[in-house]
Specification:
The complex is a heterodimer.
Chain A lengths: L1 E10 L2 E4 L2 E5 L8 H8 L12 H16 L12 E7 L4 H12 L6 H4 L6 H10 L5 E5 L5 H13 L4 E9 L4 E10 L4 E2 L2 H8 L7
Parallel strand pairs in A: 4-5, 4-6
Antiparallel strand pairs in A: 1-2, 1-7, 1-8, 2-3, 6-7
Helix pairs in contact in A: 2-5
Chain B lengths: L2 H13 L26 H15 L6 H7 L3 H13 L1
Helix pairs in contact in B: 1-4
The chains are: A alpha+beta, B mainly alpha.
């Protein structure tokens, strides 16, 4: 059966892996929350500093899921891990910064332009891990568990064996990131709409 | 600290939108286009060309020169000094 083997929730002030808080934002720090997390978790990937916030969020959550699940991704061929991400605001934050760069900064910024599509985060993760599997980024009105379940059926038919799914809503005012790993195992937490909805709220007041 | 090198680091942070980095995070000899250094890519090379013209009035037209000049902060500073002395 398909089960959720690891998950990560990244919010404005805390980060949870498999439901356990692993880091809290230091509001007295001058560093951004994502930089705090990157350093606190002793991650080393200088390209992190070039990424926009959406890609940083995807990078951080995917690295923490890998760390929480030893053996993944080595158990799979490089084209057997699919990624399906979604959010509601696309790359709007970076789009606005890019507009700002040519309206007020004199010239359009190439380094901002490259992040003016939400699916760039998938490319960043795929490049880092050398994953060549299927990937898709959808823009949806809200987190919709059924979307991941339905799309997983298509992925299974095309040879994918593991799915890294995610909701990555990162705006100027809020951070709501939920990444989850789905694999085939004999037992565990079933990959279902109810469980996805429940885990997406792990540790939050609404849970 | 060499003020040209410090200025270059500030300009790179500004031009490449690396606001999560500080001047102290960039070593003078760190390889700019290496994953163990700053991890810059071809898009960033364009930004560095713009930076040279915008802040230092230097037009870089020979790609081979760029390859050498953009290796590190050390080489960028040396290139700027060489061009300014010419």
């Amino acid at each position: 059966m398909k089960v959720i083997t690891a998950y990560c929730n990244l919010r404005a002030d805390e980060c949870l892996v498999n439901g356990e808080v692993i880091a809290r934002r230091d509001s007295s720090s001058e560093d951004s929350w994502f930089k705090q997390l990157y350093r606190q978790q002793e991650l080393v990937y200088p390209k992190f500093y070039k990424m926009d916030a959406l890609s940083q969020a995807g990078y951080l959550a995917s690295e923490l899921i890998k760390r929480a699940n030893p053996g993944f991704p080595e158990a799979y061929a490089d084209d057997e891990i699919a990624m399906v991400f979604a959010n509601a605001s696309s790359s709007a934050v970076t789009d606005r910064r890019f507009i700002q760069s040519y309206e007020h900064g004199g010239s359009p910024s190439p380094s901002l332009f490259v992040y003016t599509l939400p699916n760039i985060v998938l490319g960043e993760i795929a490049i880092l891990n050398k994953w060549y599997g299927e990937n898709l980024f959808a823009v949806l009105p809200k987190f919709t568990p059924g979307f991941y379940l339905d799309y997983n059926q298509i992925l299974l038919a095309s040879g994918s064996r593991a799915l890294l799914g995610g909701w990555l809503e990162v705006t100027a005012d809020s951070t709501d990131v939920f990444l989850f790993l789905v694999e085939e195992q004999e037992s565990g937490m079933e990959f279902s709409s109810e469980n996805l909805l429940h885990l997406s709220q792990a540790g939050s007041v609404a849970a | 600290m060499d003020s040209l090198k410090e200025d270059l680091k500030k300009q790179i942070i500004e031009q490449l939108n690396l606001e999560d980095l500080s001047v102290e995070d960039i070593a003078d000899d760190a390889l700019l286009f290496n994953d163990q250094g700053l991890g810059l890519d071809s898009i960033d090379a364009l930004e560095l060309i713009v930076l040279l013209e915008k802040y230092h009035g230097i037009q870089l037209t020979n790609p081979e020169e760029g390859k050498e000049a953009f290796k590190s902060i050390d080489t960028m500073a040396a290139y700027i000094r060489k061009r300014n002395a010419a």
